[in-house]
Amino acid sequence: MTAKILVMPGDGVGPEICREAVRVLDALASDHGLDIELDEALVGGAAIDAEGDPLPEASLAAAREADAVLFGAIGGPAWDEQPRDKRPESGLLRLRSELGLFANLRPAILYPQLAHVSALKPEIVAGLDIMIVRELTGGIYFGKPSGLHTTASGRREAYNTMRYDEAEIDRIGRAAFDTARARSGRLCSVDKANVLDVSQLWRDVMNGLAGDYPDVELTHMYVDNAAMQLVRAPKQFDTVVTGNLFGDILSDAAAMLTGSIGMLPSASMDAAGKGLYEPVHGSAPDIAGQGVANPLAIILSVAMMLRYTLGRADLAAKVENAVGYALDRGLRTRDIMDDETQMASTQEMGGAIVDMLR
Ligand code: IPM
Ligand code: MG
């Protein structure tokens, strides 16, 4: 059956990296029998400019129709002053929520070829392979009440609510236990149970699940300690599960351990295996349009799509091997370059991956 893939390029470097990812998909279709149909839709600032809405109805409808979404990046200074519902970020948050993409998988893998690009000593990060499972459609990002108003005394007051019910914790917990089981069997749940009631519930539900997964070793860590441990001794982690806000913060920290956020893919999954695949890096407006953005994060996101939604682990491995081989050959975009390597443009890097796949 032909799989429908919706490409949402968005803003900043989004369009230029999506172009390379599409070349990779085209190569897989023409040379390796991948049966896909591509469509494209507006999102983020591009959609605000064209239609006054960061997630127009037509884009949401197309995303619902699709089997998988390939997402570039959104946001930029042009839209930062807009009211919250008219900001690019709101489009992405609505898309996650409307599609029920509750399980966000963010791997942080260090390519041996890039060990010296990390801000940490090579021996601390060599062999790093962490999977952060972030809850993506609940918690303080979506909890009600939230708002900003002026109190009777004339002072402005703003508030958000960190809220989870046990069913939401249970489903992300199961996704994380399954992920850990398929890896090394170690799962660390990160919370702030020493202070927050919502974290105490989180911890109770995770402990309850442990009985169903006797083969997975569950540990708990407070989020402040987890932030410290990630930069002190990151290799102690295998699979990490945490809520929306903590996961947002910890996944950026974990990303930087690998040398470049420009290398990291992500998957946001619903309960049925549909996913939105996007690079972890954002729209990087400062380098947009210059042809220097690293397309490997989105190309590796295509690999995740092949594995998790399209059932083509064989092709996922081909794409990942091509990325490894490009690095072996010394190909580097600006973010991962060093004195010994020559700079490749976004297009040259994409082209190299395509050549290897053909
Ligand atoms: C991320 C981003 C988003 C988030 C923003 C763009 C809304 O930082 O995917 O991590 O906070 O989730
Ligand atoms: Mg983030």
TrEMBL record:
InterPro entries: IsoCit/isopropylmalate_DH_CS, IsoPropMal-DH-like_dom, Isopropylmalate_DH
Superkingdom per UniProt: Bacteria
Binding site for NAD(+): 76-89, 282-294
Enzymatic reactions: (2R,3S)-3-isopropylmalate + NAD(+) = 4-methyl-2-oxopentanoate + CO2 + NADH
UniProt family annotation: Belongs to the isocitrate and isopropylmalate dehydrogenases family. LeuB type 1 subfamily.
Pathway note: Amino-acid biosynthesis; L-leucine biosynthesis; L-leucine from 3-methyl-2-oxobutanoate: step 3/4
Keywords: Amino-acid biosynthesis, Branched-chain amino acid biosynthesis, Cytoplasm, Leucine biosynthesis, Magnesium, Manganese, Metal-binding, NAD, Oxidoreductase
GO BP annotation list: L-leucine biosynthetic process
Cofactor note: Binds 1 Mg(2+) or Mn(2+) ion per subunit.
Protein name: 3-isopropylmalate dehydrogenase
A Pfam family the protein falls into: Iso_dh
Listed EC numbers: 1.1.1.85
Residue numbers marked as site, Important for catalysis: 141, 192
Broad EC category: oxidoreductase
GO molecular function, one term: 3-isopropylmalate dehydrogenase activity
Stated role: Catalyzes the oxidation of 3-carboxy-2-hydroxy-4-methylpentanoate (3-isopropylmalate) to 3-carboxy-4-methyl-2-oxopentanoate. The product decarboxylates to 4-methyl-2 oxopentanoate.
GO CC, one annotated term: cytosol
Main localization (coarse): cytoplasm
Subcellular location: Cytoplasm
PROSITE patterns: IDH_IMDH
Organism annotation: Salinisphaera orenii YIM 95161
Residues where substrate binds: 96, 106, 134, 224
Isopropylmalate dehydrogenase-like domain mapped to chain residues: 4-353
